[in-house]
Amino acid sequence: MLQLDYKSGVPICEQIVNGFIRLKALGVLNGGDQLPSVRSLAIKLSVNPNTIQKAYAILESDGVIYSVKGKGSYMAEGSSSDLAVIKKAKENFKQAVTSANQLGLTNLELKELVDEVLKEEAE
Amino acid sequence: MLQLDYKSGVPICEQIVNGFIRLKALGVLNGGDQLPSVRSLAIKLSVNPNTIQKAYAILESDGVIYSVKGKGSYMAEGSSSDLAVIKKAKENFKQAVTSANQLGLTNLELKELVDEVLKEEAE
DNA sequence: TTAACTGTATTATTTCGATTAGTACAGTTA
DNA sequence: TAACTGTACTAATCGAAATAATACAGTTAA
Asked: Which domain holds residue B66?
């Protein structure tokens, strides 16, 4: 369900946040679905519960999930494409495209790089 | 000439490396042009000389610049530095693809964004 | 030759963010 | 009541990045 890369340099908390956003965007998790509890996910991922807590707090403030004390945390309703984080991600990517293009990379080259990266990711 | 964002989270050293690569790619700096000295740039950017030293060392190992003890550091000539610039641009872009994909953006969506941006650029 | 530049090297220290650790409190449910 | 849930808080640990302080070596011009 969630896959962490402990040696990627990307903060664990951020990986968890992005992971749930991804699961929502891909339709693996839908509005109303319950997330693992803070403690159980911490054990499963072998990280500190505080790290999960922090990730869930960020997800909630981003409107991706909502939490109910004593019950659990749940995926928020609504289209993932409407999420502010997705919009921000698109803006960041467009910025990257602009930068790469200014450094001389062509449309075709950029698309080849997209394929190259996503092929690696799939493994 | 070089613009740093101290609160971006991106290491200063990395910003300096990318900055000179960008200046080379944009034609602001050309082969043979002398770079600011380690100490003067450190003062100008209000950072430690060791940070500049580290950035220059990375640029030199990447073939973007060359340094002569006692004289200074200079932009590398022609193809070698061009290759380094392209290589760096590709690395940066691949990183952006990975980030965007982690948030759920698909191969197709990313390619559409590439088209969207480059269509705007062409105008 | 000397003074003032240049790059380079080295070690120690500081700083800061991320994470861990431990504990406590509050709400829900069987 | 017991065992779950989320939440809050402080302290400690860890590591990467940057700083600090020197020292050494080559170049250049007065």
From this structure: 12-122
A4 reaches B (C-beta below 8 A)? no
Cross-chain Cβ contact A22/B104 below 8 Å: yes
Nearest Cβ partner of B101 from A99, A103, A121?
A: A121
Of the candidates B85, B76, B19, B75, the one whose C-alpha atom is nearest the C-alpha of residue B47 is: B19
pLDDT tens digit sequence for B18-33: 999 999 988 899 999 9
CATH number at residue B79: 1.10.10.10
Count of domains observed in chain B:
1
Residue B11 Cα, gap to closest chain A Cα (Å): 13
User: What does the pLDDT look like over A84-101, one tens digit per residue?
Assistant: 999 999 999 999 999 899
> pTM value?
0.90
Residues B20, B55: Cα–Cα separation, whole Å: 10
